[in-house]
Amino acid sequence: MAFIKRFLKASQGGFTMIELVMVVILMALLAAVAAPYLQGGSSALTVRAFARKVADDVRYAQSLALQRSGLDTPPAANPYFLYRIGFNTASPFCPGASQYNISNDADNNGAWGENPNGSGLTESAREPASGSESFCVSLESGDYQGYTVSADFGGSAPGILAFDQSGVPYDSDGARLTATRTITISKDGQTSTIVITPFTGLTLLQ
Questions:
Q1: pLDDT surpasses 60 at 197
Q2: C-alpha to C-alpha distance for 29 and 33, rounded to whole angstroms
Q3: Nearest one of 186, 194, 170, 163 to 98, comparing CA atoms
Q4: Torsions phi, psi for 79 (to 5 deg)
């Protein structure tokens, strides 16, 4: 009741600056939530939300390479340690034709994503949300069933994007990206595109 009385009093005598700012912020939040629906309906919102996750996961792979997180061998033994994200490319810890995963080659033997490697470890990024030692996102079952992810970064395995310790993007054959590459997310006739810029590996959701 006290709050209502204060509100009525404010209405009669005018709103304070704080109240006006709160109203503006609330309107902005409502507009941000409603905009995707107005542009393409709830399906478009869902596709864009998943595309945002994929873009974040690409950035996660790059950040791991930059930070050398999860490196199980000394830098001297593997000075050019890479992390890579593979789309629709099966790995020992992430089987299936429709999925993506983040792996490494911690023991530097040329075999990516070993499960386990010679040290008994899984050559994968850790899944931040669950803490799992295997970063594997299935598109064949679970929360992301039905989505399609298309990517071509060049190289002999076009679905693979690698990052070195400087965050520079490479294809599966170890060649630096020199042109912009895209990842396309689609479902139910809706699409969303992610852009990977050459040299820097900057990831942008369009």
A1: yes
A2: 6
A3: 186
A4: -70, -20
Please check whether residue 45 is in contact with residue 36, taking contact to mean a CB–CB distance below 8 angstroms: yes
Any idea which residue has 């050559």 for tokens? Answer: 123
Question: Can you give the pLDDT at residue 124?
Answer: 86
Q: Helix, strand, or coil here: 125?
A: coil
Of 8-22, 45-59, 110-124, the one with minimum mean pLDDT is 8-22
Q: Summarize the confidence of residues 136-165 as an average pLDDT.
A: 93
Surface-to-core class of residue 203, CB atoms within 10 Å of its CB (0-12 exposed, 13-18 middle, 19+ buried): buried
User: Both tokens of residue 120?
Assistant: 């008994």
Q: Where are the domains of the chain?
A: 16-205
**3 state DSSP class of 99:** strand
pTM: 0.73
Residues 6+ apart with CB under 8 A from 120: none
pLDDT for residue 18: 55
| Residues 6 or more apart in contact with residue 24 via CB below 8 angstroms | none
Select 16-205's CATH number: 3.40.50.300, 3.55.40.10, 1.20.1250.20, 3.30.420.40. 3.55.40.10
pLDDT in tens, 94-115: 988 899 999 988 887 888 888 8
What is the SS3 assignment for 94? strand
Give the span between the Cα atoms of 12 and 103, in whole angstroms: 63
Query: How many angstroms separate the CA atoms of 75 and 138, rounded?
Result: 32
